[in-house]
Design goal:
Blueprint (H helix, E strand, L loop, with lengths): L2 H15 L6 H22 L2 H9 L11 H20 L12 H8 L10 H12 L21 H13 L9 H17 L7 E5 L2 H16 L3 H4 L7 E6 L5 H8 L7 E4 L9 H13 L3 E8 L11 H11 L2 E5 L24 E5 L11 E5 L2 H8 L33 H34 L5 E3 L7 E6 L9 H18 L5 E5 L2 E7 L7 H26 L1
Helix pairs in contact: 1-2, 2-4, 4-6, 7-15, 8-15, 9-11, 9-14, 15-17, 16-17
């Protein structure tokens, strides 16, 4: 035993006992430091010869804690820190940059050859990592369409990690939970009861890959055997407002980005139906093979909805696959006053959407629904002896989810979805969606009081795009105003008051506020607009001084 080190730690612990604490925060820090000292003392109590034996010769060595009571205290401390972070989220900046010393510590951390006490690693995690997220949990994070997570979803993640299971298949509760979630989604979107299948996956990007793979196989039945060698040029159609995940899916599937034919949008940012019909007709005349139409249920820039009933009719008459990107907008089905926006979504061959947006599940969790399970089976199923199911034992519950997508190792995401829906229910979630849409209108009402702020309309959902055009720049070209708005967004983010982003509309930079929050209140938008106006004046002064 290293008595010198033991005496040193004992003295530190004794000194710590007599330290004063002044508030809850200092008490928490004191507790964490005391637990760390106790753990270090406990490890020194283990004879060094025994420690060496454990490291080198014990064939039964595991990664479990040597001292379970100490590990339990540490786990409770981490849980307390996590809950404090969420409960007091308004006391934190919406976002803050990673300090130079923290970044250096993380980026230059050497590969550990020998481990450190769990308590030390935990303290590093709480000090260097927890405070510096992108800000999704904050009530004024509106930069991108990101949900805030929920306390219940966090608890579900603890259990899912404890179970440490894969959702590929087998006789286990995880499969039953995921089947239940898929059935709930089938009911929600009114998909066929006997043929619908789906998966809980990482998000809409993966859901789109799965959907486009099924659509490709539907058009080229032998593509799994032959590949893309027969010269058929498949073509998909979507509006210019469509998310990049569709292009990525087509590229990954070997169809190439040229397989995507973009259709212009109308004044409401919805796909131009007449232009779509014309494009399909002309492409057939060129010898191309139209195979898929992608409709949007809530576009990424403005929250616009394509006419899904019209798209369904065209897809049916043209014998084409209809895919709906409903990443966040599809869940307006939960809001009775906006449900009409997704009329026709039940006619889709595939639907992709996220649970980590307007359902507020912890990242990551998305869903793909396929109208006819046979398309998933024919696209992904492979018979392998080492994955054979059985009537008895732990490999039952046919079919396996791994036959419905590309992933065999897939985490138990469905539990956080199941917990969130069980805890809050569809009515409450729908009310929060309605609240966010009303908050968008409220924000617009605050902005329109200022003549130098130009707002993109219509505001059909939860996204507000606006642009500051100060009179001081009346004679400047559009690029100068673009730079001003870009810099203003960075100023807002660095202030810690809110996180907003930019987008390009009509070839100009607009500030984008995407409201997906169960924590935001009307007061948050008052705070944001005051910050916006104050920083606008500060930036004008900066611009003026630079010119002089």
């Amino acid at each position: 035993m290293n008595f010198t080190e033991l005496n040193k730690l004992t003295e530190q612990a004794t000194s710590k006992l007599h330290e004063s604490v002044h508030n809850i925060e200092s008490l928490k820090q004191w507790k964490a430091q005391m637990f760390s000292l106790i753990d270090a003392i406990a490890e020194l109590k283990l004879p060094s010869s025994s420690s060496s034996l454990l490291q080198t010769t014990d064939q039964h060595l595991s990664f479990d804690p040597v001292n379970w009571p100490s590990a339990r205290r540490l786990a409770h401390n981490i849980l307390d820190s996590s809950l404090d972070f969420i409960q007091n989220i308004r006391d934190h900046p919406a976002w803050q940059p990673v300090p130079v010393d923290v970044r250096t510590a993380l980026e230059h951390d050497a590969l550990p050859e020998y481990g450190r006490p769990m308590s030390d690693v935990s303290q590093d995690m709480l000090k260097y990592i927890l405070p510096y997220s992108i800000g999704h949990s904050h009530p004024r994070f509106w930069g991108w369409a990101s949900g805030e997570g929920t306390f219940g979803s966090l608890l579900a993640d603890i259990i899912a990690s404890t179970m440490n299971t894969t959702s590929s298949g087998g006789t286990q509760s995880a499969i039953l939970v995921e089947r239940t979630v898929i059935e709930w989604m089938r009911q929600l979107f009114n998909f066929p009861p006997k043929t619908t299948a789906g998966l809980v996956i990482s998000g809409t990007s993966m859901a789109t890959i799965i959907s486009m793979a099924a659509a490709r196989h539907h058009a080229l039945f032998n593509v799994r055997l032959d590949g893309l060698v027969n010269g058929t040029q498949l073509v998909a159609y979507a509006s210019t407002e469509t998310h990049i995940c569709v292009i990525r899916a087509l590229e990954l599937l070997g169809l190439g980005s040229k397989a995507m034919h973009f259709i212009s949008v109308d004044e409401n940012f919805c796909i131009n139906i007449d232009e779509l019909k014309k494009a399909i007709r002309e492409d057939r005349e060129k010898g191309l093979t139209p195979f898929c139409i992608i409709g949007n249920a809530g576009t990424v820039n403005t929250g616009a909805f394509d006419n899904l009933l019209e798209l369904s009719s065209i897809a049916h008459s043209e014998h084409m696959w209809l895919h709906i990107d409903g990443a966040f907008g599809s869940l307006v089905v939960l809001d009775p006053n906006r449900r009409h926006l997704v009329a026709g979504i039940d006619q889709a061959d595939s639907l992709a959407f996220d649970f980590h947006k307007w359902l507020h599940c912890q990242y990551d969790a998305g869903c793909v629904l396929i109208r006819d399970v046979s398309h998933l089976n024919s696209t992904f199923s492979l018979n392998q002896s080492y994955l054979a199911s059985s009537e008895r034992g732990c490999s039952g519950y046919k079919p396996w989810f791994s036959d419905h997508g590309p992933e065999l190792s897939r985490t138990f995401r469905a539990l956080r979805v199941w917990f969130t829906l069980k805890e809050h229910g569809t009515v409450k979630i729908g009310q929060k969606i309605a609240d966010n849409c009303q908050q968008a209108q409220y924000l617009a009402s605050l902005l329109e009081k200022h003549s130098f702020i130009r707002i993109i309309r219509p505001i059909s959902l939860n996204i507000v795009n606006f642009r500051l055009e100060p009179k001081e720049f009346a004679d400047a070209d559009s690029y100068v105003v673009d730079v001003f708005n870009n810099e203003l967004v960075a100023d807002i983010q660095l202030s810690g008051i809110a996180v907003v982003s930019t987008t390009n509309i009509h070839k100009q930079i607009y500030i984008r506020v995407a409201i997906i929050s169960h924590r935001s209140t009307l007061e948050d938008f008052d705070i944001f607009v005051k910050c916006l106006l104050d920083l606008h004046q500060a930036r004008l002064r900066t611009s003026s001084s630079n010119q002089s």
